[in-house]
Amino acid sequence: MSKDLDVICIGAALVDMVAQVERHPLEDDEVFVSDLKLLSGGAAANTAHACAKLGLKTAFIGKLGFEDWFGNKIINDFKKVSLNTSFIKYSKKYRTGSAYVALNKQGDRRIYAHSGAANHLTKNDIKEEELIKSKVIFLSSLKNIEPFIEAATISRNNNIPVILNPGMLIIDQGLENIKPLLEKLDIIILSKWEFISILYLQEINLNTKLVENNAGELLNLGLKIIIITTGSKGAFLFDGKKAELIPPREIEQVIDTTGAGDAFSAGFMYGFIQNLSYKFEDLRNSVKIGNLVAGKCIQELGARNGIPNGEELKNI
User: Fold this and answer.
1) N or C: which end of the chain has fewer CB within 10 A?
2) Domain residues for 261?
3) For position 265, which CATH number holds?
4) Residues 6+ positions from 102 with CB-CB distance below 8 Å
5) Which pLDDT tens digit goes with each residue over 84-127?
6) Structural domain count, the chain
7) Considering the chain, what percentage of its residues have pLDDT values greater than 70?
8) Nearby residues of 48 by Cβ (< 8 Å), 6 or more positions away
9) Cβ contacts of residue 151 below 8 Å, gap of 6+?
10) What is the C-alpha separation between 100 and 109, in angstroms, rounded?
11) pTM across the whole model
């Protein structure tokens, strides 16, 4: 069957209210907001937007409030990068979610997220006839994992690779509770803290030996590949036989780390979708692209402004 899409991203789409502050408040404290911006966000939505901007044929599945202002903004921003919005679901009961982000001069952030309609996506909203149009299915950061399990089950039955970038909303539910989802995945992309949390590790300084000694518990569930992002040090790649830390390029200045993980996921998928190969060398190249796109992202304010387009990426 021919595929109309490169990737379908499933998860939350929110509107981020980003406040720039000199410092974060202490208890019972108040700080001055020097600038306030409204930006479309949500982890899966950010990754979908980045994928589309990189030139991948991309669709998004998530739930928005029916004809509310935040939802309309999200749709309009998707359309600017030619992202397919026809699979989006709508709720007349719940409004589109939002996140409140405080960002200081060092790029350190505090986020308070209200999922709104996003967390009311159900397994009945996941349609096989939509998923089978894509080469890859990407899942990210939704507390309600029921639709993710449904999507992963459909994808596995149709030999479509499934990638999860969970976020702490999923990780905090505990390994035992999310095993039904993990057992249906091919690739998982974890932050350093997500990896430490899901395996209840005491050591926080990751190295290749520690990854090799501990990540096997996840591979035993059926996963093929584990990727662990570590920020400025790059990302670990582990296939069950070998772990390698793949460093990023040097960047001039970090402005805002919001969306760095989402940008990494988009860059990684850009590489992975070229040949859908699980060979270590091919995956290493995909991780390098992920590092590069994430590095571009954090040099500008917001989760989407620094993402290069497909032509810029090819030139780099």
Assistant:
1) N
2) 5-315
3) 3.40.1190.20
4) 19, 21, 24, 31, 109, 110, 111
5) 999 999 999 999 999 888 988 877 878 888 999 999 999 999 99
6) 1
7) 99
8) 7, 9, 58, 59, 60, 78, 83, 138
9) 10, 61, 126, 131, 137, 139, 162
10) 10
11) 0.91
